[in-house]
């Protein structure tokens, strides 16, 4: 084909047009919702447990965007008048920030009938602009082949790691939830408060020679599998997922002081499609949450959910976990991160 | 050439350049300007240099800048030192083996950097293959060495990733060196050692410079290897990621990324000057 100016301009215009069309928000198509999910098994669970019943009941379709809360919130902040996402899965601290920024809609039982069966404290924790639908607990995961008598509490964990009995893998500050499920939880267990995190940093100083840091959940599992660490701070659900995958040498303990409840919030950005309410109601429905819990091995928040026998023995009851004060933590979190950088390193 | 034909030719050239220019402006220049501008703006939109002032007057952050540059320089120096002999053998000695050697050099680049980094974890963990070999198989050590999360291993992993870039840059220049110049030096009585340092090496400075710049730039922004293998390094890319992922301080992240960019450009300029002076 001969490339002359006419064909060049024509092709360029067509390509630009196609790119432009492709860039149109999917929301412009009325019956399409853009929801969010983490990758891997999470995506499958979101599609099977929430997207499928939503599509069956409404006749609408839902596309699933993969990523993480910080990215999704930034996308909504960049275009609040026409948010590219209709439903956000959020970490509790970011849910508070999004609510404080008046970027999210209020959750009410009128809009979401299934919200009636979600403990009010979870909606309050999102300042009324969202609620928790799923939770895990951060505790002590250990290699049973190496650790015959695992520490039962955070305090014992610190003492025995400091003494050199174990090498522990703990989350690094590069992992978003670290400030809550590790820093706050350990500090709280050792007698600290949100405004006094000295106990945590003193404990880290004592343990420093026997610590390795994980930057992401897979990293932790590699540390245990390769023998780099004997035990560490991890999540209950992820531990049981490994067990279900055939890893029979791993187990989990919820420390006596109570691990931090690491919840997953769900929110609807202002100006997002009203179809989102139908989808959110499915997310909060007991039958869907029950199925979701079975896939992910995590607890869910609808009080009508009844776990299977296997799951009931694994899910840490809400009464045995501590609900972190996310709003208070959000206020001081950057100071904690800065202190961590200076005293422990990245 | 008639004036209209000249204009038409220039217009055709401009049109051919237009897609790449538009692409660069839209996806590189505009985001870069937008990102940097955040660091100069207060929340109410007025101009400020306060973030740069507080960042550059804090010894902790200055230490991070120094650590970033020193780490990149160390990785660059080691990579070039390893790459030169490999490139020399590849061009001058390998003969029919040059194809397989190039394949072996490039093959690791076809694997995800995350997979390669996890490979280092498996090899060098406390109960990994290397420690098992040293403690159990050879019995040289009583207890396993702590190799992961040490500076040496993090540097080694970065060098492993970046050496191929340096080898290929040096080899391409070495290939073009006129062998008669080296033969001339030998015939005039210079030793092989002197011939290498006074003829071959200066003639390949462009390749060394290109390889060093490539390696330095990539090392300067390296992230995954340092996150997964630790090593205790605190570098600007790690801190920038943290501002987006954990603290959501986008303005500070923008300040740091602008500083990283300026450092990279300054080092690029210095290296180019050095290489040109050496090669002159």
UniProtKB/TrEMBL annotation, chain B:
Protein's name in the database: ABC transporter permease
Major localisation: membrane
One Pfam family per UniProt: BPD_transp_1
ABC transmembrane type-1 domain ranges (all copies): 65-271
Claim: Membrane is one of the keywords in the record: yes
One GO term (biological process): transmembrane transport
Keyword set includes Mitochondrion: no
């Amino acid at each position: 084909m001969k490339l002359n100016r006419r064909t060049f301009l024509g092709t360029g215009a067509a390509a630009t047009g196609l790119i432009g069309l492709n860039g149109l928000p999917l929301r412009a198509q009325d019956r399409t919702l853009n929801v969010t999910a983490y990758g891997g098994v999470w995506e499958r669970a979101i599609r099977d447990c929430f997207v499928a019943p939503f599509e069956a009941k409404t006749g609408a379709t839902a596309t699933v965007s993969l990523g993480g809360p910080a990215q999704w919130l930034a996308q909504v902040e960049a275009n609040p008048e026409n948010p590219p996402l209709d439903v956000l899965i959020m970490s509790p601290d970011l849910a508070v920030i999004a609510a404080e920024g008046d970027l999210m809609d209020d959750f009410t039982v009128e809009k979401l009938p299934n919200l009636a069966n979600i403990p009010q404290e979870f909606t309050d924790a999102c300042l009324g602009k969202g609620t928790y639908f799923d939770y895990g607990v951060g505790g002590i995961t250990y290699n049973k082949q190496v650790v015959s008598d695992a520490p039962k509490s955070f305090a014992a964990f610190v003492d025995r790691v400091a003494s050199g009995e174990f090498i522990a893998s703990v989350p690094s500050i590069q992992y978003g939830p670290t400030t809550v499920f590790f820093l706050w939880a350990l500090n709280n267990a050792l007698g600290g408060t949100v405004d006094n995190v000295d106990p945590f940093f003193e404990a880290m100083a004592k343990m420093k020679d026997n610590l390795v840091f994980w930057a992401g959940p897979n990293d932790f599992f590699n540390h245990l599998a390769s023998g780099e660490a004997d035990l560490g701070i991890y999540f209950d659900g992820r531990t049981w997922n490994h067990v279900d995958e055939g890893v029979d040498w791993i187990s989990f303990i919820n420390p006596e002081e109570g691990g931090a409840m690491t919840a997953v919030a769900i929110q609807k950005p202002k100006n997002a499609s009203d179809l989102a309410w139908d989808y959110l109601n499915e997310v909060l429905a007991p039958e869907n949450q029950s199925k979701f819990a079975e896939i992910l091995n995590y607890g869910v928040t609808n009080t009508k959910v009844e776990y299977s026998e296997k799951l009931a023995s694994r899910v840490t009851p809400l009464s045995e976990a501590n609900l972190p004060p996310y709003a208070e933590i959000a206020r001081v979190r950057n100071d904690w991160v800065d202190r961590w950088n200076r005293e422990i390193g990245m | 050439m008639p004036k209209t034909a000249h204009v038409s030719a220039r217009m055709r050239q401009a049109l051919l350049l237009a897609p790449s220019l538009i692409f660069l402006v839209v996806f590189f220049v505009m985001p870069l300007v937008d990102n940097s501008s955040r660091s100069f703006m207060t929340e109410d939109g007025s101009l400020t240099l306060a973030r740069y002032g507080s960042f550059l007057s804090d010894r902790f952050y200055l230490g991070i800048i120094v650590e970033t540059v020193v780490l990149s320089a160390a990785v660059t120096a080691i990579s070039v030192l390893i790459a030169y002999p490999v490139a020399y053998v590849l061009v001058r000695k390998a003969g029919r083996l040059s194809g397989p050697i190039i394949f072996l050099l490039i093959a690791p680049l076809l694997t995800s950097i995350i997979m390669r980094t996890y490979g280092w974890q498996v090899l060098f963990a406390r109960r990994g293959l290397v420690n098992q070999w040293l403690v159990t198989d050879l019995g040289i050590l009583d207890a396993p060495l702590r190799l992961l999360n040490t500076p040496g291993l993090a540097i080694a992993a970065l060098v492993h990733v970046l050496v191929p870039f340096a080898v290929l840059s040096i080899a391409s220049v070495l290939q073009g060196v006129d062998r008669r110049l080296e033969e001339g030096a030998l015939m005039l009585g210079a030793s092989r050692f002197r011939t290498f340092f006074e003829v071959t090496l200066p003639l390949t400075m462009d390749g060394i410079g290109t390889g060093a710049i490539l390696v330095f730039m990539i090392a300067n922004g390296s992230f995954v290897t340092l996150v997964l293998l630790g090593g205790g390094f605190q570098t600007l890319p790690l801190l920038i990621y943290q501002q987006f992922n954990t603290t959501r301080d986008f303005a500070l992240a923008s300040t740091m990324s602008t500083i990283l960019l300026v450092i990279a450009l300054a080092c690029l300029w210095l290296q180019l000057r050095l290489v040109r002076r050496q090669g002159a």
